[in-house]
Amino acid sequence: MAKKHKILQSVPLVAIDLGSDTVRAMAAEMTDEGLLRVLGVECSNKFPCVERGVVTNPTNAGYIINETLKLLANRIRVDALPSAFICVGGRTMQIVSVSSKRDQIRKREVLQELLDEMEAECRSKIESRNPDVSVLDLVPYYYTLDGKQQDYAPTPSQQAMMVQAHFMAFVGKRDLEQKVRDSFARSGKRMELMYVRPDVLLNALASDEDMENGCVILDLGAQTTTMTVYKGTQYLYNKVIPMGGYDITRDIEQIGVSLSHAEQLKCKYGTACAEMVAVNHRFRIPAPKMPGGEVALMAKDLADIISARLDQMIMPLMDILNKEADRFKVLYVTGGGAMLNGIIEYLQSKTTIPVMYGSHASFLSSDTDDEMCMPGYSSLIGTLLLGNIYRQSHPIQAKDENLPILEILKQMTLDLFTEQQTAQNPSTNQKPSEIDKMENNH
Length: 442
Fold this sequence. Notes:
By secondary structure, the chain is of the alpha+beta class. It is 37% helix and 30% strand. The protein is built from 13 helices and 20 strands. It has a 5-stranded mixed beta sheet with strand order 4-3-2-7-12, sandwiched between helices. Strands 15-14-13-18-19 form a 5-stranded mixed beta sheet, with helices on both faces. It is globular and about 85 Å long.
C-alpha cells in the first residue's frame, strides 16, 4: 500500500551550480507577480571535485553538496533542503539533432503519451549508437502535424495522422551524468532534475525576440569558455573551449607571485588589452620564492598577459562565428569572466555582432539584493526558472504528519506488513506497481 502524502505549497526552489572552482547553491521563491525572490546563496570550495565542468570526485562533490545545502538551509532559516535542481556543462558536451515519426493510421488526438514515447525513442537512438554517450537534455524545437510545422508542443485538442517531433539533444560522455548522480547519492540529497548550462543561460538572458532574430551567448567560466548559438527555434552550435579565467590567473602567477595575488591582480587591476589601460601603473607584489623580495609589474604588461590568453580562448570561437555574423543580432557575455575590465570592448573589436552583458535582472523581484543581478549568477537564475516550470507539474510531496494518531498507527502497521510481504515475495520486488513507480520518481 502506498503511503499517504501531502503537497507542500511553500518548499523553496533550490539550484546548484557545479562550477570548476566553487560549488554554489541558491534558494528562491516565486512571487505572485511571477518573479524570483532570491532567499539566499551559499558556496563551498573546500575540496577539489570538478575540473573543466566535469565531476572528478563524486565523494568530495557529494560532501560539498550536502554541506552547501546545510549552510543554505541555515541562512534561510528552514530545517532542511532535501532536494535541488542542477545545471551541468563540461568540455565533452555537444549538440545533436534527432527526430521521431509516428503514423497513427487515422486522424486522431495527439496525446502526451505519444509525445513521451517519441522523446524516449530519440534518446534511445542517440545512446544506442554510442554506448559512451548520454543524453543530458532533450530540447524540442519544432513539431510537424500532417506536414504542417509548429514550434509549440501539440495539445490533445489537435488531431493528426502523421506526427513528427524534432529535438536538439545535448549529449556528453556518459560518466558526466553518472558522476553527477553519484554525487547526489553520496550527499543524501535528491536531484529533482538536471539541466544543461547553455539551456539555462538562454532562458535567463535571451528574450523571445533575441531567439527569433538569432543570438549568441558567450559563457566565460573559471576553467571553460562556452559559446552557444541560437536562432529561430533551434540551437545551431555549441562549442566548449577547455580554458577560462583560472588559466589567466595561472599565467599571471608565472611572473613569480602567489596564485592568490595573481587572482587579485586580474580581478582588481587587470584589463582585457593594453590599449585600454588609461594609466600605466607600476605594481609591486610580494614574491613567495624570494623572502623579502618583490616582483614589479606594469599595468600594460599585466594586460598583455591577459590578452594573450584571451586570444587563445576566444579567437577559435570568433573565427567560426564571424563567417555568418550577419545572421545574429546580439552576443551576450556572462559568467564570472564577464567582470574582467574591458571585456566588452575587447570582444567588440573581434566581431561585428553587437556585444553586451547578459542580464537576468528582469526575472528578479524588486526586494532581491542587487548583487544577485551580477553575471556570475545567471546560471543559477536560469536553473531556478526552469525548475519552477518543472515544479508546477511535479509538486513536492511529503508524508502526511497531520493524520489522527489511530490513522497513523494503522498506516504504519499496513506499511510494515507490506514490506514484509514484499521481502518474502521475489516477484513483487521484480514488478513494482505503477503507484510505487510514481512514488519513487517523486
